Amino acid sequence: MVSRTRKLRGSRTHGRGKKHGRGAGGRGGTGNAGLHKHKFKSMIKYDPEHFGRHGFTRHAQMHPVTAIDLEDLARRLAEFEAAGHATKDNSRIHVDLTAAGIDKLLGSGRVAVAMRITVAKASEAALAKVADAGGEVVLPAAAGK
Prior knowledge:
By secondary structure, the chain is an alpha/beta fold. Helix content is 23%, strand content 15%. It is rod-shaped, with a radius of gyration of 37 Å.
């Protein structure tokens, strides 16, 4: 028996019509062409996660620093006292910001009373303002130094 190719020699289209034999016409386009049109059902069946966003983008810091200004500290003294993080002495107020979950003391605002503040980190301005008011900031000894 003669092979199909041999049989169709000289027929120009080999029985495929005008476009079926040219390029990627027989498969409906090259690659992923037509996934939102004529190949939609096969995309839903075999690759349903093809379109859309996947994974995540991390915008937040790993360990965000919780900070408080001197102004906010003065305003929230009653709140810290109620929670047991601040005690009043006859000469000064003792505030434990580390126990309150605050990592850093910032220097914005005024200090009206003498305070002894325990915190992990403090800005230079905060240290100076608390010292000028007759108080002190207790920082833990730096482990890296």
